[in-house]
Amino acid sequence: MGRTREFDEEKVLDAAMQLFWEKGYEATSLSDLTSRMGIQRPSIYSAFGDKKELFETALRKYTMTRASDVRTRLQNNPSVKEAFCTFFKDVADEEYTKNRSRGCFCINTMVELAPHDEKFEILTREHQMYLSIIFQETIERGIQSGELEADVNAKALSQALIVSLIGLTVIMKSRPERSFVDNTIDVILTLLK
Question: Which residues are CB-neighbours of 111 under 8 A, at least 6 positions away?
């Protein structure tokens, strides 16, 4: 009979996710992880595998949570245009009000690991495509309701909005002037007119 884990796996995974999100994969040491997670190396290996497997598990948890959050945010507003407006402005507000400059964990991974690690190239691309589908479904809802023109290419528009979101999220890490960000969001939202 195996030993019962003496820690909350979700809680320690959240701690690892936050640390990887703050520092990135390469800059996070196993000592950093044991300190933040409050467990020893053998427990990390037993529960999650090596550092790379732990990182992958944390990234998968983040992308699932983020996709669910994005879907909820966009569905909670009956107006598609207002939903996207609120969503993009919230992205900026969260960075400025929480003074984080962490960006998106998935996008950070795309920049750090995807260029030279096929697994993370695929994982980050899958997340982009999933978010694009959520955006596309929202746009299609706007077309069906008559809020958006019937000839709007929902797939192409959703992809353009994803690229805009990624660019916005990356640039937010350098904390540009708020007016720069607000003007950029205003132009992004013109794609929905």
Answer: 170
